[in-house]
Amino acid sequence: MKTTYTQERFTGERALFFARDLSLTDCTFLDGESPLKEGKDLELTGCLFRWKYPLWYCENVAAENCTWFENARAGVWYTNNIRVTDSLIDAPKNFRRCRGVALKNVSFSNAAETFWSCEDVTMENVTARGDYFGMNSRGLAIDGLTLYGNYGFDGAKDLTIRNSKLLTKDAFWNCENVTAENSFISGEYLAWNAKNVTFRNCVIESLQGLCYIENLTMRDCRLLNTTLAFEYSTVDAEIKGKIDSVMNPLGGRIAAGAVDELILEPARVDPEKTEIICSDAEDDA
Question: What is the pTM of this model?
Answer without folding.
Answer: 0.95
